[in-house]
Structure to design on (358 residues):
């Protein structure tokens, strides 16, 4: 088992990466001495696969365990679905010694974290991510949120988990399209901070797509380590942490315009990365070769690279609702080279339209 630490003073926590972790969760909860009851939040697809193992792991630490299910998919990351969890907590008289457990992908993790941040003004929660995307990205860093029809993650809070337990065995049941969607975030880490990771993905793409255990452990550990370093420097995304949004500015617009139903999050991010690279080239920040490398990497892992057909005006209107907009200026994370990006606070509508229609 690998162990990483996110150092955030009294909000610090460990990230565990290994196999057969679910039934041993209780071994890693000694720092949560006040917890008496645990509520596992999951979805109907994941619960039959891993719900029993997680419950046994929690019970071994002396916790009384119950479970609540939220339907699968981004369309269920809403205040209404959060209300389902609140209703269970309130009806069953859960108190501040409650431990919430997010068992599932990014939707479950984000929603559970948001409920934990807001129920009784804050209770402890842990992340047990079961998708590649959530293991390398959304489970780490304390961003919690639900969506609004007008934009993604517009209602949320920064609220750190007390533990992230990444069990590689859960990837064996992950559908191929979900796995590929997770690879978009791994590619992102290579682009923003680690050319060696980017090269490793090029060299080992077939092994990775075949879910080779050693390759998976390597890319997950590297991705989590990069995110840990970024979050330690800028927990609340005041500036530097925005680099983690490479590809997400346009990606979130794509998700909103398609009502969170046409693309998986990672697929939208993949398209967003390609067009962020094209915009970077257009503005003179990178070479055409860098654009080609990113597009080829996206396509190598079977991810989409073409925009859905909406007008430039539709995209721009949606971009203005992005939570990173500042003083009505659209921010983009632009690439300079593989491993180096920069935050650009003002990108004009004309430049965005040109990149979208080129």
């Amino acid at each position: 088992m690998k162990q990483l630490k996110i150092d955030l003073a009294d909000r610090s926590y460990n990230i565990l990466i290994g196999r057969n972790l679910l039934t041993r969760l209780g071994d890693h909860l000694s720092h949560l001495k006040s917890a008496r009851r645990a509520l596992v939040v999951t979805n109907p697809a994941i619960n039959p696969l891993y719900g029993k193992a997680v419950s046994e792991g929690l019970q071994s630490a002396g916790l009384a365990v119950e479970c609540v299910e939220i339907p699968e998919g981004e369309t269920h990351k809403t205040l209404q679905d959060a209300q389902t969890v609140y209703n269970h907590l309130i009806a069953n008289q859960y108190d501040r010694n409650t431990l919430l457990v997010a068992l599932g992908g990014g939707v479950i993790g984000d929603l559970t974290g948001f409920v934990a941040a807001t129920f009784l003004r804050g209770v402890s929660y842990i992340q047990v991510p079961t998708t590649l995307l959530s293991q390398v990205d959304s489970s780490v860093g304390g961003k919690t949120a639900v969506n609004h029809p007008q934009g993604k993650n517009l209602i949320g809070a920064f609220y750190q988990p007390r533990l992230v337990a990444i069990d590689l065995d859960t990837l064996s049941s992950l559908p191929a399209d979900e796995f590929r969607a997770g690879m978009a975030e791994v590619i992102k880490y290579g682009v923003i901070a680690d050319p060696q990771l980017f090269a490793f993905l090029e060299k080992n793409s077939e092994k990775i797509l075949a879910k080779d255990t050693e390759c998976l452990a390597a890319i997950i550990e590297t991705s989590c380590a990069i995110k840990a370093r970024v979050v330690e420097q800028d927990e609340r995304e005041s500036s530097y942490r925005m680099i983690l949004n490479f590809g997400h500015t346009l990606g979130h617009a794509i998700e909103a315009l398609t009502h969170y139903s046409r693309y998986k999050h990672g697929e939208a991010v993949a398209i967003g990365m390609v067009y962020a690279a094209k915009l970077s080239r257009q503005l003179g920040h990178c070479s055409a070769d860098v654009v080609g490398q990113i597009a080829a990497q996206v396509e190598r892992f079977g991810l989409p690279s073409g925009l859905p057909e909406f007008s430039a005006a539709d995209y721009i209107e949606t971009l203005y609702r992005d939570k990173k907009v500042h003083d009505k200026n659209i921010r983009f994370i632009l690439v300079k080279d593989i491993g180096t990006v920069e935050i650009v606070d003002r990108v004009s509508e004309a430049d965005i339209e040109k990149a979208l229609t080129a």
Summary: The longest strand covers residues 151-158. The chain has two domains: 2-172, 176-357. The domain at 2-172 is CATH 3.40.50.1970 (Rossmann fold). The mean pLDDT is 96.
